[in-house]
Amino acid sequence: MLFFLIFIICAILQIMLPWWIIMVIPFILALWKSEKGSKTFISAFGAIFLNWFLYAFFVHFKTEGILTVKVAEMLTVKSPVVLIFITGIIGGLAAGITAITGHYCKNLIKKQ
């Protein structure tokens, strides 16, 4: 459930808001709906990884690979596909870490 909430809300809000919304939404949703720390991290990581991966793949095909090839060359990455995976991993890590932070904040609030 947490996976789908993060995926859908972030996909919609990223159209209108800055990229760092992927860190605010998982934090808030983890405060509200998290159960276990590992499950919370994996849900947020997976949702944003998939979100950014699909969007990067969309941009790759829309620009016929021109943009991703040039960015891959600038970053000395061997392949645009590797760049797309790295993009997803960076977004997933950012979301996963903030989601687990939200989970631990929820645990702190419950203990007090």
Task: Report the mean per-residue pLDDT as an integer.
Answer: 92
**Low confidence ranges:** none
How much beta, percentage-wise? under 5%
Shape field: elongated
Largest sheet: none
- Euclidean distance between termini CA atoms: 27 Å
State the order of secondary-structure elements, H for helix, E for strand: HHHHH
Structural class: mainly alpha
Q: How many helices does DSSP assign?
A: 5
Helical content, roughly? over 70%
In a nutshell, what does this entry contain?
Helix 2 runs parallel beside helix 5. The chain is built from five helices and no strands. With 112 residues, it is an all-alpha fold.
Overview of the molecule:
By secondary structure, the chain is mainly α. It is 85% helix and 0% strand. It is built from 5 helices and no strands. Helix 1 packs antiparallel against helix 2 and helix 1 (2-16) packs across helix 3. It is elongated, with a radius of gyration of 15 Å.
What key attributes describe this structure?
5 helices, 85% helix, mainly alpha, elongated
Give the topology, please.
Elements: H1 2-16, H2 21-33, H3 37-62, H4 66-74, H5 80-111
Helix pairs in contact: 1-2, 1-3, 2-5, 3-5, 4-5
